[in-house]
């Protein structure tokens, strides 16, 4: 965050030193409670950028909002690589639970410090059916994380971070407290390598010439989620698995994986026991169904 950003934001509403001190307390609180990333976006940023429809902006949802605090928890790469698997599903569910607890805890902590706060859960939809009916949540954590300076939006529509690429999930807490703002990252982290589009099992992503963010067929992606939910190994997450961005790749010594990811579907279709994918395939084989449940299965369970 640049100093000028911090001053610009705090001069209007309060004391810069006070905002800085509160921010430091919140960072410590978030880190102590398991957040891997924390960022601060001033509520007016939604109006400055004018990319998000008015009803989906923080002050339209909760009028007192001055700052949106965005917290992220990483999805560690070796487990994401096993997708679709019960391991990946349990990681996803656990991170979601942790994120919601983190958001609620921070909301209560802010209250104890004398600041009203408002929590928006990590997904904001109750089921795939609800998402199918209305394919948006009431608030976008991806946009909030962008405005907090945590990353940039890639071809895949995911937020790419320097630390974990797209392998991170977010929750947001709105507060009336004014705090120094994160600096929005100007240079796109997405290299437009196209790996997410090439490996998407539903061809739901398509690169565009005019923008970094690609075309996204949400209905096709949802279809994939439905299939995997029936099998007990959702979500898909292939586009988050293959993205080369993120320092987590160096940590796990999993750089330059493009060839392996690109060839995976074709090689496994020809030989499900291909040695290069043996470990992932082993994990996938157990704990979830290899195909969606049939009506006969349901009848059998009822009797
Ligand atoms: S989650 Fe899967 S189906 Fe959806 S866009 Fe990403 S790769 Fe494609
Ligand atoms: S896989 Fe490549 S094109 Fe897709 S989001 Fe990541 S960097 Fe961008």
Write up this protein.
With 303 residues, the protein is of the alpha+beta class. The chain has one domain. 46% of the residues lie in helices and 12% in strands. It has 15 helices and 8 strands. The strands form 3 sheets. It has a 4-stranded antiparallel beta sheet with strand order 1-2-6-3, with helices on both faces. Strands 4-5 form a two-stranded antiparallel ribbon. It has a two-stranded antiparallel ribbon with strand order 7-8. The longest helix has 27 residues, at 86-112. It is globular, with a radius of gyration of 21 Å. Residues 154-156, 160, 190-196, 242-245 line the site of one iron/sulfur cluster.
Q: What is shown here, in short?
A:
With 303 residues, the protein is α+β, with helices and mostly antiparallel strands. It is 46% helix and 12% strand.
From the alpha carbons, calculate the radius of gyration and give it in angstroms: 21 Å
Shape: globular
Subunit arrangement of the protein: single chain
What does the main sheet amount to? Answer: 4 strands, antiparallel
Count of all domains:
1
Low-confidence stretches: 1-13, 294-303
Residues in β-strands, percent: 5-15%
Element pattern in H and E: HHEHHEHHEHHEEEHEEHHHHHH
Strand order of the largest sheet: 1-2-6-3
């Amino acid at each position: 965050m640049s100093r000028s950003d911090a001053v610009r934001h705090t001069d209007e509403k309060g004391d810069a030193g006070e905002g800085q001190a509160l921010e430091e307390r919140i960072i410590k609180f978030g880190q102590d409670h398991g957040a891997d990333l924390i960022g601060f976006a001033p509520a007016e940023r939604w109006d400055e950028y004018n990319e998000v429809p008015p009803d989906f902006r923080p002050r339209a949802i909760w009028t007192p909002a001055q700052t949106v605090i965005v917290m992220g928890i990483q999805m560690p790469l070796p487990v994401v690589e096993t997708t679709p698997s019960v391991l990946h599903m349990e990681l996803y569910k656990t991170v979601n639970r942790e994120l919601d607890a983190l958001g609620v805890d921070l909301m209560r902590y802010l209250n104890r410090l004398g600041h009203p706060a408002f929590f928006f859960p990590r997904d904001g939809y109750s089921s795939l059916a609800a998402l199918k009916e209305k394919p948006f949540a009431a608030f976008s954590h991806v946009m909030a994380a962008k405005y907090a300076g945590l990353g940039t939006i890639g071809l895949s529509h995911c937020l790419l971070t320097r630390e974990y690429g797209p392998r991170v999930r977010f929750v947001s807490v709105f507060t009336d407290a004014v705090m120094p703002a994160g600096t929005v990252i100007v240079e796109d982290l997405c290299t437009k390598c196209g790996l997410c589009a090439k490996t998407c099992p539903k061809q739901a992503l398509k690169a565009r010439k005019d923008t970094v963010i690609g075309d996204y067929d949400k209905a096709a992606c949802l279809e994939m989620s439905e299939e995997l939910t029936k099998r007990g190994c959702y979500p898909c997450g292939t586009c988050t698995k293959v993205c080369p961005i993120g320092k987590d790749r160096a940590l796990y010594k999993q750089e330059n994986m493009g060839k392996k990811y690109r060839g995976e579907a074709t090689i496994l279709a020809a030989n499900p026991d291909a040695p290069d994918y043996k470990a992932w395939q082993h994990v996938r084989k157990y704990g979830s169904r290899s195909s969606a449940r049939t009506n006969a299965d349901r009848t059998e369970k009822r009797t």
